[in-house]
Design a protein that fits this description.
Blueprint lengths: L14 H10 L1 H6 L5 E2 L1 H8 L11 E3 L5 E7 L14 E3 L2 E5 L9 H7 L4 E7 L3 E2 L2 E2 L2 E12 L8 E6 L9 H8 L21 H6 L5 H8 L7 H10 L15 E4 L8 H5 L4 E4 L1 H8 L3 E3 L5 E3 L6 H6 L14 H14 L1
Length: about 350
């Protein structure tokens, strides 16, 4: 067996062992469907794990194979203050706090770290709605990525989701992927930031779509794409220029176009604005842009008598975050080149 990991980064020397053990637990993966809802009783019957019916823990080690099941409730209302909001998706990565009795060198944690056990994640937003216990949503398999040094009892671990779906049509998965502690006025204590990290596998799976697929990813009529959901989340479901909130027509527009963006930039929500169709068309053709303070820039190509027809004016302003400024600068430069 490989030596114990101490620096908190994935040891690729364990990858072969992980892949071998992953095959042993495929029976669980094959029995379940990504995005489906399951109660613990459902899973106990389906996976022949009788003791799971009465388990109240958030972590369950299979009696039949080398699988470990994580049961995570994201919204921890009513829980004691010592339980923190450190469980959430950050793109394809999942942040997780262990049980309060565990640290990175706990035997079962080390089995997960070293790839001896395959983790299956079951998540729900709330434990109960109107007094009714909610089922968990199966979010697929997790692979150890790193742990946060200095954390213990619980230890904070970041996993990569092997079955993460950028363009999922499943509403439960989309809601879970987009949920963050700040939705309930909380903040995470984790210092690990994966917001700008894209795995090599995700890059390979996220090749440039054709025009039909692109419209499914970016526009709303087909659009259930994860990137679009991120943009809707960022802008609160409203075009920041026109204040239109008809989601059926709003477009998640890249500031720096797809063919001029790196893999990371294509997936970065800071490179996107939720726009009404006519504003998107003007922005896409570099007939309008925005300054770093959000002030609209209108091309000289648009004659003033069209301002009213297009419902634009120099008074329009966009809310700009710090990380958008680099993208907007490139957009303005392109606009100047076309003037």
């Amino acid at each position: 067996m490989q030596t114990t990991m101490t620096l908190g980064k994935f040891n690729y020397g364990n990858e072969l062992e992980f892949n071998h053990n992953k095959k042993l637990s495929m029976n669980i993966y094959e029995e379940l469907k990504l995005g489906n809802r399951y109660s613990k009783t459902d899973l106990a019957n389906k996976l022949d794990q009788e003791s799971l019916k009465t388990s109240r823990e958030g972590l369950y080690h299979s009696k039949n194979d080398n699988s470990t099941l994580f049961f995570v409730t994201l919204k921890k209302q009513g829980k004691e203050d010592r339980l923190h909001y450190n469980d959430f998706f950050e793109g394809e990565f999942f942040h997780w706090d262990s049980q309060t009795t565990q640290h990175i060198n706990s035997p079962k944690i080390q089995e997960i770290v070293n790839g001896e056990r395959t983790v299956h994640l079951f998540t729900r937003i709330e434990e109960k709605i109107k007094g009714k216990t909610q089922p968990y949503v199966y979010c697929g398999r997790l692979q150890y990525e790193q742990y946060e040094e200095g954390t213990s009892n619980p230890v904070h671990i970041v996993f990569r989701s092997l079955d993460y779906e950028d363009n999922t049509l499943n509403e439960d998965l989309r809601e879970i992927y987009l949920w963050k502690p700040n939705k309930v006025g909380k903040s995470t204590q984790s210092r690990i930031d994966k917001s700008k990290v894209v795995s090599e596998e995700r890059k390979r799976n996220y090749s440039k779509p054709d025009e039909t697929a692109r419209k499914g990813l970016i526009t709303s009529r087909v659009g259930q794409g994860y990137y679009r959901q991120q943009i809707i989340e960022k802008w609160g479901g409203v075009c920041p220029v026109t204040k239109c909130d008809i989601l059926e027509i709003l477009i998640a527009s890249h500031i720096v176009p797809w063919n001029e963006s790196s893999d990371e930039e294509r997936l970065d929500p800071e490179n996107g604005i939720l726009l009404a169709p006519h504003i998107d068309a003007l922005f896409d053709k570099h007939l309008i842009s925005f300054e770093d303070d959000g002030t609209i820039v209108i091309s000289n190509k648009i004659q003033k008598h069209n301002y009213e027809a297009l419902n634009i004016s120099h008074d329009l302003k966009l809310g700009v975050s710090e990380n958008m400024k680099g993208y907007l600068k490139r957009h303005r430069q392109k606009m100047q080149e076309k003037e």
